[in-house]
Structures are given as structure tokens and as C-alpha cells.
């Protein structure tokens, strides 16, 4: 799945804003890429038979949450700027 699609999957109600921001903001694209890589790593660790014992699972869950919040802040800030 493409990076932007993963972000849209997480924020479906903001899909238009996400697509527009992804096209014109390199910082937002970098956060999207980090989010994509963190999700990929989380899924890889969760699939392991020893996942309940792996500290990486919680580490990546926290990282994904932090990146989601960073994405949300970035989207909301952009939407406010567009209203001005």
C-alpha cells in the first residue's frame, strides 16, 4: 500500500486534505513515510510468535501513536492556514 494511502486509511474523513498536503509539503511527506515504516515494523513484530515478550511491539505502538498525532497536528494546522 502506498504511503499516502496508509495515512488516508487512518484519517479517512480528511482524505482530500491529506492528498493535497502530501503533494505540496515535503515535511508532511516525511512524516507520512515515518508513519508507514513504523506501521510496517509494528506489523512485523506483532506477527512474530514471541510478540508478547518483545518490547519492540510496545515501542512501535507508541511510535505509531506519536506519528498519528504529529500527522493530525500538521493536517489541522494546514487547514487553519487555508481558512485565513
From TrEMBL:
It comes from the Bacteria. This is Uncharacterized protein. The lineage of its organism: Bacteria, Pseudomonadati, Pseudomonadota, Alphaproteobacteria, Rhodobacterales.
